[in-house]
Design a protein that fits this description.
The complex is a heterodimer of chains A (211) and B (341).
Chain A (H helix, E strand, L loop, with lengths): L2 H10 L7 H4 L2 H7 L6 E10 L1 E8 L5 E10 L3 E14 L2 E14 L5 E14 L4 E19 L5 E21 L4 E8 L12 E11 L3
Antiparallel strand pairs in A: 1-2, 1-10, 2-3, 3-4, 4-5, 5-6, 6-7, 7-8, 8-9, 9-10
Chain B lengths: L2 H14 L6 E3 L2 E3 L2 E6 L8 H9 L9 H8 L2 H11 L3 E5 L1 E3 L4 E3 L1 H7 L7 E5 L6 H16 L4 E6 L1 H4 L10 H9 L3 E4 L12 H4 L5 H6 L5 E4 L13 H10 L3 E4 L14 H11 L18 H15 L4 H15 L11
Parallel strand pairs in B: 3-4, 4-7, 7-8, 8-9, 9-10, 10-11
Antiparallel strand pairs in B: 1-2, 5-6
Helix pairs in contact in B: 4-13, 6-8, 12-13
Classes of the chains: A mainly beta (211), B alpha/beta (341).
Chain lengths: 211, 341
């Protein structure tokens, strides 16, 4: 057995996710959605092209308010607030989230306008590992202006952008209140224009009550 | 150093280096010259065209298209594309079209070709805006650029530069070409870029006939063979071929029209090559890609062209002329010999 397999085996058998402290683990909360009641979680994932910062807190009944900022290549910004709700929370967890925010993109393809996104996060903790998958549907609206050479607006028109978000990867709990993940981002921005996949690594932390 | 170690290093170097220059065609090894490549920088492209180009790039490349452009438009980047495609040499275009596709100065082309003076040459151009007042100066600067050995021809694009093909006021450009004994490359056919002129007077090579007829000592290379990039149709291709049939100083360059974007089914290029062959002007084809566009485009266009030559039943000798020898003769470049694999 190779050292890598030995390490993976030992890590996989090292965590009991049924304990309250592990139920509210930040890696599980951020990757599978839905923080434990009274538990604050924050995460930062850095990759190419996406960088994401998220903070969320668990409320009674599996509800979880979310504040997040996403950026692609630091040229497209997607700040948003929303709420998540754990739908299934047994050995598998499935969470629905909806957020409202803004899409901000500069030249040469400017886009500035409100956005709404619905998404699902799901997966199952296995030992210290948290394999996960995310899918989402995002709609944004902007107003295009056609100007003459003097800058006077000749006409304006509304433009909608529909995008799909998606990610797969796995998290790894490093301790009771900290974890990391690595994953692939699979977005399809402004359908039907093509999009290239991306990669990210993330770190997650938590504080507050852990049940 | 032991022989084994030397052998190992040689194998390693050969595995890491570019492929030998040349392509295989019907059992023969042929050299390739790409006579249509672009250099330049993003900042000299008008905002409307920057948006046009960005919108056609996949996410997230569309967010920072200047990075992609700067990565593929330097002389060094062009050389990498040539190496990957096993192409021996290429011509870089100067462009003066500030209202449509932007500006790449003659000076920029001369700088870019220093990446490898034995493989890169340039086509000079000139600004034609405000021609009555500035034409003489522009002609003088063009003539000065053509004094450079590296500049082996003139590049014009009536549609991008906004002047009519049949306007004799601009025929002094062809007189400069005659004086320097260099050919003139002309963009023909409607162009998809913003702020280009799409009327036949600017795009249809039929409107060039008077100038071609009046300058028998100047070789005219009809770029894109009149292909309609707006409607993705063959456009004025028959006219371009007809001009080549009737005038010995007319050559045909089928760049870009056979690309994945312009010709997803792969029918344009073989159709036009077949038409040229049927008309008896297969020996007047000069290969160009209109790259680099994006990494890998130069290689891809060459592959598609080889397939089209085969489909159009070009002989090895005809393919040799089209891929390299016509460019060498027309632009007075060295004769390139393929390398053994």
């Amino acid at each position: 057995m190779t050292p890598v397999v030995l390490l993976m085996t030992s890590l996989a058998g090292a965590t009991d996710w049924s304990t309250p402290v592990k139920q509210g683990h930040p890696t599980r909360a951020l990757l599978l959605g839905g923080s434990g009641e009274g538990h604050w979680n924050a995460g930062l994932s850095v990759g190419s092209p996406w960088v994401t910062a998220t903070t969320q807190v668990g409320l009674r009944g599996g509800w979880t308010p979310i504040v997040e900022v996403q950026s692609a290549s630091f040229a497209r910004w997607q700040p948003a607030v929303g709420v998540g709700k754990r739908w299934i929370d047994r050995s598998w967890r499935l969470t629905g989230e909806s957020v409202l925010g803004w899409t901000l993109q500069g030249e040469p393809v400017p886009f500035r306008g409100p956005a709404a996104e619905l998404r699902m996060k799901g997966g199952r903790a296995v030992g210290r590992f948290v394999p996960y998958a995310h899918v989402g549907l995002r709609s944004s609206r902007t107003i295009d202006h056609t100007e003459d050479t003097s800058g006077e607006v000749l006409r304006s028109s509304i433009r909608w952008e529909t995008s799909f978000s998606g990610a797969v990867g796995t998290g790894l709990a490093l301790g009771d209140r900290i974890g990391v993940d690595v994953g692939a981002d699979l977005p399809w921005i402004d359908v039907p224009n093509p999009s290239l996949p991306g990669l990210h690594v993330g770190v997650h932390g938590g504080w507050g009550r852990t049940q | 150093m032991s022989p084994h170690r030397r052998l190992a290093i040689a194998i390693l170097l050969s595995a890491c280096g570019p492929p030998p220059k040349g392509v295989d065609y019907r059992g023969s090894r042929l050299a390739v010259v790409d006579m249509h490549l672009h250099t330049g920088d993003w900042d000299h492209v008008p905002p409307g065209t920057q948006s046009f180009l960005a919108e056609r790039s996949p996410f997230p490349l569309n967010l920072r298209p200047e990075r992609v452009a700067d990565d593929v438009l330097t002389g060094e980047a062009v050389l990498e594309e040539l190496d990957e495609a096993a192409i021996s040499a290429a011509l870089l275009f100067a462009v003066y079209a500030p209202r449509s596709v932007g500006v790449t100065t003659n000076k920029h082309v001369l700088q870019a070709r220093t990446a490898d003076r034995k493989r890169l040459w340039g086509l000079a151009s000139l600004p034609v805006d405000d021609w009555d007042a500035s034409g003489a100066d522009a002609l003088s600067q063009l003539s000065e650029a053509l004094e450079e050995d590296a500049m082996v021809g003139i590049k014009l694009a009536h549609a991008h530069m906004h002047f009519r093909m049949d306007d004799p006021a601009y025929w002094s450009i062809y007189e400069v070409a005659a004086a320097h004994n260099v050919p003139v490359y002309l963009h023909t056919g409607p162009s998809p870029f913003p702020n280009t002129r799409r009327e036949p007077e600017y795009t249809d090579p039929a409107w060039m006939e008077a100038a071609i007829d009046a300058h028998p000592g100047v070789d005219f290379l009809l770029g894109h063979m009149g292909y309609d990039f707006v409607n993705h149709e063959l456009g004025a291709a028959d006219t371009a071929i007809d001009l080549a049939v009737r005038y010995d100083n007319v050559w045909l360059e089928p760049s870009a029209l056979g690309s994945e974007g312009s010709d997803p089914e792969g029918t344009n290029l073989p159709t036009l090559l077949q038409k040229a062959r049927a008309a008896g002007v297969a020996d007047r084809i000069v290969y160009g890609s209109d790259g680099p566009q994006s990494p890998g485009f130069v290689t891809d266009y060459l592959s598609r062209t080889l397939l089209a030559l085969e489909t159009a039943d070009y002989s090895v000798d005809e393919a040799r002329l089209a891929l390299a020898d016509n460019a060498s003769a027309l632009f007075r470049l060295p004769t390139f010999v393929p390398e053994k694999p």
